[in-house]
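Retro notes, structure queue

What went well: the backlog is down to a handful. What didn't: a couple of records were mislabeled last round, so from now on we paste the full input next to the output in the thread. Example, using T-cell surface glycoprotein CD3 epsilon chain from Buceros rhinoceros silvestris:
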Amino acid sequence: KEFLVEISGTTVTITCPLSEETITWKKAETQLDNKERKYVIENHDSSPASVSCSTGAGEAARTYAMYLNARVCANCEELDALAVTGIITADLLITFGVLILVYYFSRYRKGRASTSAGSRPRGQKMQRPPPVPNPDYEPIRKGQREVYAGLGPRAF
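Corresponding output:
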């Protein structure tokens, strides 16, 4: 059997696994006045403590002990799985919506020229003249093929 520990704000409620009517609670070797099955710690300061509950005396005595290391805070909120799932889903939908809006508005701006101060207006594309030939590389003429005859593909 296990203890049932419930935390709400700074209040910690511990339920003993024993089902008898009179239960003796001890916290850090100090016996407490509570004789009920539930032990409530108001304004818990998050300090670790050893808590035990026992019933009976002599050989019929049964004792359950636990080490309580509960972190509490006054203004914390507990979220269930459904709330976390809803928050993540809403975040993804909003992100996807922004992505679609950015795509939609930027789709038509691709072909437009920018009107910045340093740019010159572009007219129709004009054909460029061929580059000036380099005198080191002359084109092959019909009568001079023997100079380049050794450059042909070779069979292996």
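Agreed that this is the format going forward. Reviewer comment attached to the example: Residues 79-110 form one domain.
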